[in-house]
């Protein structure tokens, strides 16, 4: 008698059996329900991971774009004495290849008032060209203009600050500083009135309601420092290159100046975001892990239910490897299809997340992303290709690993024991 030819691994016969076991029958309905929940769990787990990581990336990038767009990547300050040679130091620093800008500024806290409203703000004195080159401000002037800023007596406010004061372009506001002139009776507060020259909106509430800009010479006069500045802000081509550039910049500074970078000034905030991202990834990975455990339980029940069919296949010549591959395909199919569905769902949500937020806010009549709480005026999502690939590979790996033990149990089934009581 001619010997039947063995089928190769992952042949059509094995795929046919595996897909047949995935189809629901009345007797195996509960097993199919478990498989369905496993599929939904993996899909939602992968989608949730992609969406949450993208939102956290977008949140981080937006915040640092706003923060670093308004503040220098490196800050040069004097040690206990006036900073008078700021133009000379700025010229030296600009000669370094990686340095984009070196901006002298005067900064101080004042009280700003209009009619019956008063608030505490930070006033920065800056030159017109430097203010225009600050993209966070120069590209977001909503009312008025920065043209002629150096030559006229005017102040630039954020939209939230202007709304709180109830002023528009051309209206007057009053600045009050405790650092005024010395009199025989003590220090008298300095009070000056300025017209509103322009109104900007960065999109970060913390800045739009607490920062105002004056021309550098006007700020120097107001803060009684006519020949000096508070600090020199240095902008780099790449903010992450501060460690590489810092030694060269430090060598160009006089001994009475110190330098700090944006990571030092935002260390708590930077580290908090980093820890939150890592913890959130680990927590959400548990969703995928639970779905993978559902695959294990579903396959074990399927193996128990199909024990007689496995025994018959073994007596007909099916090898242990073939049986193992059949159940491996059955379980892995749930994981692979669930992962791909989760990938598609996550990408679609990330690409339309702001529209989805606006729709949910409209339906529920609630503010889901208040700028007063989250500092930003929109919900950002920035997908990182490497992170998405990591999520997909992790989900596929867990799904494949979950099928190994049930498949091994099916392959080790003894046909004699399985058919003994049939």
UniProtKB/TrEMBL annotation:
<keyword id="KW-0813">Transport</keyword>
<feature type="transmembrane region" description="Helical">
    <location>
        <begin position="385"/>
        <end position="405"/>
    </location>
</feature>
<dbReference type="InterPro" id="IPR011925">
    <property type="entry name" value="LolCE_TM"/>
</dbReference>
<feature type="transmembrane region" description="Helical">
    <location>
        <begin position="279"/>
        <end position="303"/>
    </location>
</feature>
<keyword id="KW-1133">Transmembrane helix</keyword>
<feature type="domain" description="ABC3 transporter permease C-terminal">
    <location>
        <begin position="282"/>
        <end position="415"/>
    </location>
</feature>
<feature type="domain" description="MacB-like periplasmic core">
    <location>
        <begin position="39"/>
        <end position="251"/>
    </location>
</feature>
<comment type="similarity">
    <text>Belongs to the ABC-4 integral membrane protein family. LolC/E subfamily.</text>
</comment>
<dbReference type="GO" id="GO:0042953">
    <property type="term" value="P:lipoprotein transport"/>
</dbReference>
<dbReference type="Pfam" id="PF02687">
    <property type="entry name" value="FtsX"/>
</dbReference>
<dbReference type="InterPro" id="IPR051447">
    <property type="entry name" value="Lipoprotein-release_system"/>
</dbReference>
<feature type="transmembrane region" description="Helical">
    <location>
        <begin position="30"/>
        <end position="56"/>
    </location>
</feature>
<protein>
    <submittedName>
        <fullName>Lipoprotein-releasing system permease protein</fullName>
    </submittedName>
</protein>
<keyword id="KW-0472">Membrane</keyword>
<dbReference type="GO" id="GO:0098797">
    <property type="term" value="C:plasma membrane protein complex"/>
</dbReference>
<dbReference type="GO" id="GO:0044874">
    <property type="term" value="P:lipoprotein localization to outer membrane"/>
</dbReference>
<keyword id="KW-1003">Cell membrane</keyword>
<keyword id="KW-0449">Lipoprotein</keyword>
<keyword id="KW-0812">Transmembrane</keyword>
<dbReference type="InterPro" id="IPR025857">
    <property type="entry name" value="MacB_PCD"/>
</dbReference>
<feature type="transmembrane region" description="Helical">
    <location>
        <begin position="323"/>
        <end position="349"/>
    </location>
</feature>
<dbReference type="InterPro" id="IPR003838">
    <property type="entry name" value="ABC3_permease_C"/>
</dbReference>
<dbReference type="Pfam" id="PF12704">
    <property type="entry name" value="MacB_PCD"/>
</dbReference>
